[in-house]
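seq/struct pair 1
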Amino acid sequence: MTAEQLQKMHSGQGFIAALDQSGGSTPKALALYGVKETAWKNEEEMMDLVHQMRSRIITNKEFNGDRILGAILFKATMERKVEGLPTAQYLWEKKHVVPFLKIDNGLADEIDGVRLMKPMPTLDTLLSEGETYGIFGTKERSVINKANADGIRKVVDQQFEVALKVISHHMVPIIEPEVTISIADKKEAEVILKQELIAHAKKLSPEQKVMFKLSLPAVDGFYDELNKLPCCVRVVALSGGYSQKEANVILARNHGMIASFSRALAEDLTAQMTDAEFTKKLGASIKAIYEASIK
């Protein structure tokens, strides 16, 4: 983490590109990209294919630090190269885009209306590796499926426990307790979640920096209070299953949030596109998400 990167993430205009599909979500991401499961024989070949997809996005002229503040990578992407450079190094040195790393191992089964993160026994090793590669921050995702106070408290407890470990490795954690957008009590779940997030964040010093990645709220501007916390670098929004167009409309009404979209960013991009078609579509997506993020 450098002071320049921290300043860009705190005050820059733009959004975060989430390029962090892992082993479980990669087949779906490739399918949407037009690559069938018959195209690979094992996980290594699958990750090579998704790295080709990510590289095509990252190296495109439309993908740069003028409108994109950061990019979230999966471990296999961090360990691979783009145009001869480690991906994180390429992002910062060539594109002026701040690199993040997804560190969770996926979700545990649902208990108390939530899905906690699975155990991370090798987390310290992964964080040390991230430091070596020049990673600025991390992302760790939990899911909330019900307005259950006990469950949500456990989610936030776990998120901050991991966040403190990330901070000890001189990186900025993105705390991501995703509220499922389709649940009937989403608004109630967000009330409980915000209370827990604020209570935990107030225990941090101003030097212990964190970010929050949250579902677009039921009430516009609902998470504005988080931006006022001394420890908060930025509040970002996940698309959560909304189409890019839907997500952009809601995001534009939430002036304290910027986008951190994954599927919505890569929407309608395919391997079969010519370079000109790919550039046009990617450029249009980046422009639309950027404009929604800066309103």
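seq/struct pair 2
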Amino acid sequence: MLAPIFSQDWPNLPVVKAQGLYLYGLDGKRYMDFMAAFGVVNVGHNHPRVVTAAREQMERQIHGAVGVTLHESVLRLAYMLPEILPGNLDMFFFGNSGSEAVEGAIKLARNVTRRPGIIAFMGAFHGRTYGAASLTASKAIYRTGLDPFLPSIYHVPYADPYHSSHPDNPTLCVEESLAELQILLKRIIAPSQVAAVIVEPIQGEGGYIVPPKEFLKRLREICTSNGLLLIFDEVQSGFGRTGEWFAAQAFDITPDVMAIAKGIASGFPLGAVCARSELMSRWEPTVHGTTFGGNPVSCAAAVATIDTIRDEGLLQNAKKSGEYLLSRLKELKAKHKMIGDARGLGLMTAIEFIVPGTDREPNSAAAKKFLNECLSKGLLMYPCGLYGHVVRLAPPLNVTRQQIDEAMSIADQSLSVV
């Protein structure tokens, strides 16, 4: 009864309960969720504070179309977000998902600038709705059979250190990527015709790729000097995932627009377009809208989520635990030659599988066997990367060292089996 899009995914694990780091299967086993439901439950599954806030809001009001009515939780959330966002992003459009946030961001950019061009990056994943899919270039399957896409979309290389021609030289890696951007602006589309550049500060589906800091700094400079809006897609990297509220702060960059979602409300549907008020206020009324966006229950859950991250010191834990997790992954890399790279920032980490003895040849078969072996031992992770050869590890921000050690023990055993 479920579309193949659902039913052919992996692992289709029947779950009857979720709490904290753990999923409880119909098979009676307990599983460690080291993907935090794709980076959504950053404070863990069913955090009591979030559950209480949502329940109390449900008893008051479940739905209200923002603009027709106003409710306290959406205003409280809008008041809180500028305290944790980079720079002076202080005005918001609330939707239901990351894809919607991206759609809103590019509609805002085109409407305000009156320019058609949007530049994105190879390896990017921005969502599955038509505008977001037009920007996506992580796998051809996400675009197969769906043409035509939005016009005036261009893709240039991302600064990917491990796959660069200069893996040991971050500066040359950055130059290699941005040279293509400069050529695009000179030969294909003039800056005066470009509305925005959209980028994931850390690529997610593309392989959990952390670029050199210089890459985003230079990108900010190029956008500023050419009058282009810089959009950060922080759907996956936001709300403490990197050890800062947002990856923008980890890289010390302020974009003009941000698309946020996933970890914002601990599993309740919510996303947002964030921008400076002087920019957002130029977005013409009725050009965009929503029925369910900014739902009262979702916003109440988001307020509780932000309070929980702040009050429980989860940014600090994400930074500290992320450093420890990455050190353990690097130990596995040194021990098991099928791991070509271990990388990450905060609790957004990954290992990349290669065929030993080759020049970084992807080893998707080993990654798949590894994931299944880990799952049989009670550890859930998920693949990413072009060939599904990268395994992402992104547990909730309140993961403990003991839980990391348990997961790494399972990973070590599973690697030995593979």
